[in-house]
Amino acid sequence: MQFPKGQFEWTRRRRVIFATLAFCAAEIAYLTIWGGDSRLHETIVISAFLLAGSVIGSYVFGAIWDDANARKYMGRGDED
């Protein structure tokens, strides 16, 4: 089976995405359990949540956009 061009790029992208989400989860868990109650820790946790949300949003909409471009390239897409 031959994969369309760019299929293996998503494998590398997923690794980076999962690593980023794991980092955010570890950071939030560490500060929740062992972090003191300070404004700095609060800001770090909020930023980690925002980073995780941004990564998930980019992953979902990036995949949709990439699939739409692949359909157009292969001639099976909806032509506007």
Report on this model:
With 80 residues, the chain is mostly helical. It has one domain. The protein has two helices and no strands. The longest helix is centred in the last third of the chain and has 36 residues, at 39-74. The radius of gyration is 18 Å and the shape is elongated.
Mean pLDDT across residues: 84
List the total number of helices.
Answer: 2
Percentage of residues in DSSP E strands: under 5%
Number of domains: 1
Query: What is the structural class?
Result: mainly alpha
Largest sheet: none
Distance between the termini: 31 Å
Number of strands: 0
Q: What percentage of residues falls in helices of 4 or more residues?
A: over 70%
Rg from alpha-carbon coordinates: 18 Å
Task: Give the topology.
Elements: H1 7-33, H2 39-74
Helix pairs in contact: 1-2
Characterize this entry briefly.
The chain has 80 residues and is mostly helical. It contains 2 helices and no strands.
Features:
80 residues, 0% strand, mainly alpha
